[in-house]
Specification:
Elements (H helix, E strand, L loop, with lengths): L9 H24 L3 E6 L4 H12 L3 E7 L2 H11 L6 E3 L18 E4 L6 E2 L1 H16 L12 E2 L6 H19 L3 E5 L26 H13 L4 E7 L1 E3 L7 E5 L11 E3 H13 L7 E8 L10 H9 L10
Parallel strand pairs: 1-2, 1-4, 2-3, 4-7, 7-8, 8-12, 9-11
Antiparallel strand pairs: 5-6, 10-12
């Protein structure tokens, strides 16, 4: 069987492009005349969450509400996006236990962009800085970034944020009557030995790490919740413009074998919006995504076109792995 990623070849785009464009245009016109879909974006103060919120804000089909953790991040989001106070909710997703606040009531979709964020250990930074002269003398890299140690802030470690926090959000989505939940997760969840799982751990293996394992556990909870879902596993996120490279979608970490495993953060945000517009027949899907350079003159399929073509294949992540 050929790799699923081959669906993004030009011949497949030619097959689906015109038909999808016509269908998408008609669907868009129909939905613009309908009431905008109230969509909660959690983690909207983060780089990916802010992009998702901004794109939904610009799309007349949606009425986004940003969920942020602090007043400061809420104020910053208002300054950067020009949204109103009525579009921002301040709450800690690891603590909220009800459908409050009222601004969330009536939401029909939720995009979860929350994630534990590691910070570099000061002690590790100093140790590596002291090694720089000796490394240069030996002709090695000034800093071995793999030797840097990272940790998570108190009560902001993976189990608390990526598992308990996301489970809470999924439960609240059900209470609110949300029909579709999108999660931005990460590739690598099938490999317990992935280096990202070591972040936050001490040399003896203790500590608060295993971020990919906790993310995957939350994903499985969503798949068993009865809610329609789209779970996106991007490769390494880079801050480049969307649409410059070809989107490659697959499942079960097959894309981890690729030498290039990155994707534009903005492309991921576009896939989140596409998830809310593609597959209106109620299908759920979980997939990995990266991007790859295109040849000069080659047309790049949009996020909606790429996701639509992928969903026609009828494959999704195997959570038994």
């Amino acid at each position: 069987m050929r790799p699923i990623l081959m669906f993004v070849l030009c011949c497949n785009w030619m097959k689906h492009g015109a038909a999808f464009a016509s269908k998408s245009s008609a669907s868009a016109k129909a939905r613009v005349t309908a009431a905008p879909i109230k969509t909660l974006v959690t983690g909207a103060a983060g780089r990916t969450g802010r992009l998702v919120f901004s794109k939904l804000q610009e799309d007349r089909r949606f009425s986004p509400v940003a969920v942020v953790r602090t007043d400061a991040s809420g104020k910053k989001l208002i300054q950067e996006t020009g949204c109103g106070l009525d579009q921002v909710v301040v709450c800690d997703v690891t603590k909220v236990k009800s459908t409050d606040p009222p601004k969330c009531v009536g939401a029909k979709a939720m995009v979860i962009c929350t994630s534990a964020v590691p910070v570099i250990s000061v002690r590790s930074l100093i140790q590596n800085a002291l090694k720089i002269p000796w490394n240069l003398v030996r002709g090695k890299k000034a800093v071995d970034f793999r030797s840097l140690r990272f940790k998570f802030k108190r009560n902001q470690y993976p189990e608390k944020v990526d598992y308990e926090g996301q489970v809470t959000q999924i439960d609240i989505a059900k209470q609110l009557g949300v029909e579709h939940v999108v999660i931005v997760s990460s590739m690598g969840g099938t490999d317990p030995d992935n280096f990202l799982n070591k972040v936050g751990k001490r040399p003896d293996g203790s500590g608060n790490g295993d971020i990919l394992l906790w993310k995957r556990k939350a994903e499985r909870y969503l798949t068993e919740s009865g809610l329609r879902y789209t779970i996106i596993h991007p490769g390494g996120l880079i801050d480049t413009p969307a649409g410059e490279e070809e989107l490659v979608l697959d499942v079960d970490d097959k894309l981890m074998k690729n030498e290039k495993r990155s994707i534009s953060r903005e492309d991921v945000a576009n896939l989140c919006v596409a998830a809310l517009t593609v597959g209106s027949d109620g299908k759920s899907v979980s997939f990995d995504c990266i991007s790859r350079p295109v040849k000069e003159g080659q047309q790049v399929a949009s996020a909606e076109e790429a996701l639509s073509a992928f969903m026609e294949l009828g494959v999704t992540t195997n959570y038994v792995l």
